[in-house]
Design a protein that fits this description.
Elements: H1 5-18, H2 48-55, E1 63-65, E2 82-87, E3 106-111, E4 118-120, E5 130-131, E6 135-136, H3 137-140, E7 141-142, E8 145-146, E9 157-165, H4 166-170, E10 180-181, H5 183-192, E11 202-206, H6 220-223, E12 229-230, H7 232-240, E13 245-248, H8 266-274, E14 278-281, H9 286-290, E15 295-300, E16 310-312, E17 316-318
Parallel strand pairs: 9-11, 10-12, 11-13, 13-14
Antiparallel strand pairs: 1-17, 2-3, 4-14, 4-16, 5-6, 7-8, 9-15, 15-17
Helix pairs in contact: 5-7, 7-8
């Protein structure tokens, strides 16, 4: 899997510019919103009432798959990669198992779980090794899996989905890399598209960035090197509304390059360690945008791998 040199340069520049801050005080992470022992953060907002209300949004039963297809050539945040190996265990050189000649294919996955369409669990983003609820790396991040905040603790995410088409907001076919979605942009886009963002919502942003991965104008290097996305004020605004998850059709959800030199993935920090909000990346929102769908039932049931930080996912939107 190829990684963009431009992204690596951005990361290196940020690391260099922030090296002098290594001895500065750690920004305070507030207590977990939902109690000292809480491990699921904003998923606490997934109440039976909200789930029933979201189910009421289904009108014609059309299903939209939000998980992009991912493979070994999918651009990914360095150094992430994956490969799949197909084999027929114990069947080579024979006619199969038993007199009925049963044969089967298996596959071995080797790679990172935070690749392609993914959910970032609350053990992912931190501030100087401090994480949601004030946990430190040594408290819960063990080499063989998280002992707290793992995605095995998350029952799934079901609720009202909201999709903001930022191509409409900016009046372009594809939003340019490096474009931040500010509080003002999010408010204006929601108002123009006739949708209200509410507590407990799953908010997705459409930029048409996925078109860089296929077709005559494909540019995978560009796809993985920069991106439009949620800016700092946008993240603070969404966190203030108590949304359940924030996602986008880009590999990192937030704007790259950052709005301020030396400040990298600040929106991740606002959403996750400070507010316990889930992040969804590489969501394929093109079909929703083509149909003009801004409100829908959102359903996500991730694999509950014990101690996992992230997971490859295929959420479903139903209108």
């Amino acid at each position: 899997m190829k990684h963009s040199g431009r992204l690596c340069a951005i990361l290196l520049a940020s690391a260099t510019s922030t090296a002098a801050l290594a001895q500065s005080p750690v920004p305070e992470i507030p207590p977990a919103k939902y109690g000292a022992d809480d491990e699921i953060g904003s998923a606490n907002l997934m109440t039976p009432e909200r789930v029933k209300d979201a189910a009421g949004l289904v009108t014609d039963g059309k299903v939209y798959s939000l998980g992009m297809i991912v493979g070994a050539d999918t651009p990914a945040f360095p150094p992430r990669s994956l490969s799949v190996t197909i084999l027929q265990p114990g069947q080579n050189g024979n006619t199969g198992l038993g007199e009925n000649r049963f044969t089967y294919n298996d596959d071995i996955f080797m790679g990172w779980l935070g690749i392609g369409p993914q959910i970032d669990g609350l053990g992912h983003a931190g501030v100087d090794h401090h994480y949601y609820g004030g946990r430190t790396y040594d408290d819960f991040a063990k080499p063989d899996g998280l002992t707290e905040l793992g995605l095995d603790k998350l029952p799934g995410l079901v609720g009202r989905g909201v999709m903001l088409d930022m191509t409409k907001h900016f009046g372009v076919d594809m939003v340019e890399g490096g474009t931040p979605y500010t509080e003002e942009d999010i408010k204006a886009a929601a108002e123009a598209q006739g949708v209200e963002i509410r507590e407990g919502d799953v908010v997705l942003f459409h930029s048409n960035w996925m078109d860089l991965l296929e077709g005559d104008n494909a540019d995978p290097a560009k796809f993985g090197s920069v991106e439009p996305g949620v800016g700092v004020s946008g993240a603070e605004y969404l966190a203030g509304l108590n949304v359940m998850a924030v996602g986008a059709d880009t590999w990192g959800m937030e704007v790259v390059p950052p709005e301020e030199d030396g400040i990298l993935f600040k929106a991740h920090q606002i959403l996750q360690p400070v507010n316990g909000i889930y992040i969804l990346e590489n969501m394929d929102t093109r079909e929703l945008a083509a149909d003009g769908v801004n409100e829908f039932l959102f359903v996500l049931g991730q694999a509950r791998l014990k101690g996992a930080v992230q997971m490859i996912i295929n959420p479903i939107a139903i209108r």
